[in-house]
Amino acid sequence: MRAVASVLHLDLDAFFASVEQRDKPSLRGKPVVVGGVGGRGVVATASYEARQYGVRSAMSTREARARCPHAAFLSGRFDAYRETSTRVMELLRSVSPLVEPLSLDEAFVDLAQATLPDLEVPTVTAYAEELRGRVREVTGGLTASVGLGTSKFIAKVASELDKPDGLTVVTPGTERELLRPMQVTVIPGVGPATAERLRRAGIHTVEELERVTEDELVRLVGRAHGHSLFQLARAQDDRPVVAERETKSVSVEGTYDTDLTDRKLMEGLLTRQALGVGERLRKHGLSGRTVSIKVRLHDFTTLSRSTTLPSPTDSGPVIGRHARALLADLDTSGGVRLLGVGVSGLADWVQEDLFGEVEEGDDVPDLPEAPRSRGQWAPGMDVLHAELGAGWVWGSGKGVVTVRFETADTPPGPVRSFRADDPALSARSLRREED
Questions:
Q1: Where is this site: Substrate discrimination (predicted)?
Q2: CATH says 249-354 is which class?
Q3: 304 near 292, Cβ under 8 Å?
């Protein structure tokens, strides 16, 4: 733990939903839910307007629709999210060379490496407030909640205290006072299982946790976890802000509305996913030795299998061949709702005999069209009409697609419906112009 509040945690508020509201004027101030829109979908992000109805991340889309049926349910536009995230991360790196992204919408920043005259509370507070304004500028109006503290743990806790669009600075020396009334779940690593073990021992708050000896915590939750809880309950956290986090694995997976039962189709889908994994590995100059598959059965049982190669590879066909072999050992006769392929044990080199032409038998099989988790015209996707211009998909079904014609820079626009195969309508890639 530092002597000054020089660790900053920035969290973009309701990020995916906020990007959608930014780019779709008719949705501003209204409930928006981003995630899987099918019967088995899961909420990725809900706008604050939707959260008032109890909609939360990781909730099933089915339950979210029941709670807030009038919300806009959108499938997500990851190009737009990545582009906006890139702008924010570039801004943060202009502030300090030590920026540790945790996801697209949050990061730690080490202000000790920034060009500040000092690190006293008034100075870092003013700087953080200025930074929030700059985030709003580079993102086209998105807000961020910021926490400042003497450690990563305290900074992250602080950023949650005044959401959305807030700033909290924890004055050095007041960390334990801040934590004591909070539930133990505020501590990283205390999930439902650990929280239940602590509850059974009569431990509900950080203050109660602080009274427990380290030996007792080790007995309750194990040595490594017990030691960590003992330290964090006392606000002791010496983890540095790390500029680059090592990639440990690369994977691709898909969830399907209709259970898969055709073994040949499953093998073909795994092959396609393996080609995608290989492409991503090559793009980043990586290779890996361990190939794994993830299979979720019709009853939600999740199975995983892996195999380790003698040498690293970035070849999609090679990855696919091993993925299909792993699938052969599993009983999928009852149906499969999720398939995934991943590669871990990453390296920055490739064995020459695995980096070349596709071996015989590694060709991608001819496949029937795979079951889709959403239609051709996914709710929320950006489209372009030859006469009416840019808009986004309001909804589709039964051969009809409905489009609202508006962009981030226009007023709320009109709604029009077209045949789903209308040649005048096409998908478009959203790219906000650089300033």
A1: 16
A2: alpha beta
A3: yes
- Alpha-helical (H) ranges within 172-315 are 175-179, 192-200, 206-210, 214-221, 223-232, 263-283
Residue 323 reports pLDDT greater than 70: yes
| Stated length of the chain | 435
Condensed to tens digits (0 to 9), the pLDDT of residues 15-63 reads: 999 999 999 999 999 999 998 887 767 788 999 999 999 999 878 889 9
Q: Which CATH number fits domain 6-167: 3.40.630.30, 3.30.565.10, 3.30.70.270, 3.90.79.10?
A: 3.30.70.270
Q: What is the pTM of this model?
A: 0.74
Query: What fold is seen in the domain 177-232?
Result: DNA polymerase; domain 1 (1.10.150)
CB environment 18-51: b (16+ within 10 A), e (fewer): bbbbbbbbbbeeebbbbbbbbebbbbbbbbbbbb
Domain boundaries along the sequence of the chain: 6-167, 177-232, 249-354, 382-427
- CB atoms under 10 Å from CB of 382, counted, come to 19
CB burial class (10 A; 0-12, 13-18, 19+) of residue 134? middle
Contact 3, 175 (CB under 8 A): no
**Which of these, 286, 268, 290, 267, lies nearest to 278 by C-alpha position?**
286
Joined together, the tokens standing for residue 420 give 């789903």
Query: Cα 228 vs. chain centroid, distance in angstroms?
Result: 25
- φ, ψ for residue 247 (rounded to 5)? -75, 125
Q: Over range 201-223, report the average pLDDT.
A: 94
Q: Are strands 400-404 and 389-397 parallel, antiparallel or unpaired?
A: antiparallel
Q: Write out the two tokens for 336.
A: 């499969």
Contact 208, 233 (CB under 8 A): no
In this predicted model, what pLDDT tens digit does every residue of 61-70 receive, in sequence order? 899 999 999 9
Residue whose token pair is 């015209």: 377
Rounded CA-CA distance 342/94 in Å is 34
Q: Please report which residue ranges of 258-356 form alpha helices under DSSP H.
A: 263-283, 316-328
Q: Do 283 and 250 meet the contact criterion of CB atoms below 8 Å apart?
A: no
* Ligand-binding site membership of 11 (annotated): yes
